[in-house]
């Protein structure tokens, strides 16, 4: 198999970096609680589908806490 050169990696990074930074900012602008990442997982599933992967939705289990906090 052919190996990527430093220039190949640099060009790939330059092409993908704006989208990756945008995704990072969107995900961190509206964070979800741990084990309750419904919107995040749906977004990633949609992106994987767009790349041609088969994705099964809603097979995980979201944590439901009965704890009401302090006081």
Q: Which features characterize this protein?
A:
2 helices, mainly alpha, 71 residues
Which series of helices and strands comes N to C? HH
What percent of residues are in strands?
under 5%
Major pleated sheet: none
The radius of gyration over CA amounts to 18 Å
Span between termini? 62 Å
Oligomerization: single chain
Shape, please?
Answer: elongated
Number of strands: 0
User: What is the overall pLDDT average?
Assistant: 86
Q: Count of DSSP helices? A: 2
What does this structure look like?
The protein is built from two helices and no strands. The protein has helices spanning 6-29, 38-50. The N and C termini lie far apart (62 Å). The mean pLDDT is 86.
What's the SSE blueprint?
Layout: H1 6-29, H2 38-50
Brief rundown of the structure:
The chain has two helices and no strands. With 71 residues, the protein is mainly alpha-helical.
């Amino acid at each position: 198999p052919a190996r990527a050169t430093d220039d190949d990696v640099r060009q790939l990074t330059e092409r993908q970096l704006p989208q990756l930074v945008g995704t990072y900012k969107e995900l961190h602008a509206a964070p979800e609680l741990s084990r309750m990442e419904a919107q995040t997982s749906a977004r990633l599933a949609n992106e994987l589908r767009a790349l041609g992967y088969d994705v099964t939705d809603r097979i995980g289990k979201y944590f439901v806490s009965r704890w009401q906090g302090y006081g």
